[in-house]
Specification:
Layout lengths: L11 H4 L1 H24 L3 H15 L3 H8 L8 H14 L2 H12 L8 H13 L4 H17 L1 H8 L11 H6 L6 H11 L4 H27 L3
């Protein structure tokens, strides 16, 4: 994982060590899955499943970030509120990008796997009372791209159906231009989470990793 930028008052590596370990664990588990898939080469149906679950996962994602920003626990943490508002606006249209990639691929949008439905059901319920759980899941998702960049590149090599018209979502979420993973970690660290919030961050990271890895197994292996 890339070194995380942080304000002078906070050392991200020190302040967020438990969360960083959870992120690293999720990346390690995803690397294993990607290496196994790369050995056989990426197939069109796998990529169609990937874009489909990403569409369903990102459609409406801004609602969670706006709800977190509105939570009373952030009343004295205006920088985090402002970050979440900007972040939600950036993420909001990504479901359309996934859908456009699918159309360019010549494939139909598939129904979501159960893990996407569980994601929305769980986080819709918990965000109003424990917003840092959702932030922990965000920290994982936004760091998986850079944390598995080599394995992802190996998986994508040689797939003739991957063109500029079918990979806009992938390009955005590699985070080479917009380092969202670093930004999320820095924003959380600057908010100085207390012990209970840190526990929720780590819990959310574990839940987010479990559900997202299930989505990836569905995409790559067809498992439900």
């Amino acid at each position: 994982m890339a070194t995380m930028p942080c304000s002078p008052a906070h050392d991200c590596d020190r302040d967020l060590a438990p969360l960083a370990r959870a992120v690293d664990d999720a990346c390690a588990r995803l690397r294993v899955l990607l290496r196994a898939a790369a050995a056989a080469g990426l197939q069109r149906d796998q990529y169609a499943r990937y874009l489909s679950f990403q569409h369903h996962l990102t459609h409406g994602v801004q609602r969670h970030f706006f709800a977190i920003a509105a939570h009373p626990s952030l009343v004295d943490r205006r920088p985090l509120r402002e970050f979440l508002f900007r972040f939600g606006l950036e993420e909001e249209p990504h479901y359309r990008v996934a859908a456009a990639d699918l159309r360019a691929l010549g494939e139909e949008l598939l129904p979501p796997p159960i893990e996407v439905e569980l994601w929305w059901s769980y986080f819709d319920r918990i965000v109003p009372t424990r917003p840092f759980v959702r932030l922990g899941a965000t920290a994982v998702l936004e760091n998986l791209g850079p944390g598995t960049a080599n394995e992802s590149q190996q998986l994508l090599q040689g797939a003739a159906f991957l063109t500029p018209a079918t990979t806009r979502f992938l390009v955005i979420h590699r985070h080479e231009v917009l380092p969202h993973g670093d930004e999320v970690m820095a924003a959380i660290a600057a908010a100085a989470p207390d012990a209970a919030e840190m526990a929720d961050l780590v819990h959310g990271a574990a839940v987010g990793a479990k559900l997202y890895l299930g989505m990836m197994r569905w995409a790559l292996l067809g498992e439900q």
